[in-house]
Amino acid sequence: MATPLAEILFITIAAVIAVSQWLILRSTARGMQHKAAQSADGVQRGSAGRALEWTYAIVPAIALVFLLGCAWRAMHPTAVEVEGVAPSTGIES
Amino acid sequence: MTGSPVVPRQPLAADILTLTKPRIISLLLVTTVMPMYAAGSPSISLVLIVMLGGYLMAGGANAVNMYFDRDIDGVMVRTRTRPIPSGRMAPQAVMAFGIASATAATFLLGRFVNPLSAALALGGFYTYVFVYTRWLKRSTPQNIVLGGAAGAFPPLVGWAAVTNTVDLKSVLLFLIVFYWTPPHFWALALNKQVDYGNAGVPMAPNAWGTRETIDQVLWYSFLLVALTLLPVCFGMFGLPYLGAALFLGGWFIRDAWRVWRQRDTGEWSAPAWKLYKFSLLYLALIFAAMAVDRHV
Fold it and tell me: N or C: which end of chain B has fewer CB within 10 A?
């Protein structure tokens, strides 16, 4: 089982990751505005290109949410996992 | 001026070695071998086979990359002395070498290690050649964010070579390299804007501007350091690793902060170089700390 110290560390890490990811997405939006302003044809090819850029930015963020979920689950194994039956994450805690 | 530079001839063996980008591969091998020791106690012969297979696979990917990028390599100062743009090797020969090298690596890993590590190494090859080089590199400033996945395969290969599995632990190592790539590469790209601009590659500093790129270098640095602490939460590593991750992470953020502090003064060039160089050492040391932690 996770110790209180480990839980505090996890919550701190999750908070830092969430804030950093939000700042990255905000900066990406600004960067895209900068790029569109510089590009002569930025207006014409705007929406499809922007959607793709947002996809590129959001996919890693989704991966992080999954990672944090799996890490939390590894810190709090179910009774079945504690007894050693098929721990799907392969984590010993 | 885009003509071929005057480059003294060198032995074919030296050119072939150049195709594999040995300096880059040395870091990839660190992130392959250290996870092997973090996962268990591999034999020396297993480590050597994985290193050889990893070198051949990454070297093959780098050669194929040089084939596809031969048009822009001749334009960029940083790459114009490579074997193809300088006329020392034919593009088809480089492509053939790359494919042969990757094929040999797949056989070596599949036959003498396990099929999973061979498949993962091949996945890294395809990600580098097709996802990064052919798809993202010339189309989006996020090229090295998603394309960075290619360089993050080595820990999966090393881990799978010992455990024959892909689990949360190895995925976490993958993500550490994945999130290390943006601050590392953009610190370099900040100082190579003219080169990338001439070649028409939309690196973040050229497309988004210097200010937004430097902002993201700092945010990604915070994210990276937080991620390196996560393994401690579920007992993957202990106090020795925690101490190293905090120390090295603090250093990394300090260097990124020094770049960020100069974003409006235009004096970010020297701090960005410093961050780039330290980031190389950082990745090697953080992975070494993982191996040491499991064996003390």
Answer: N
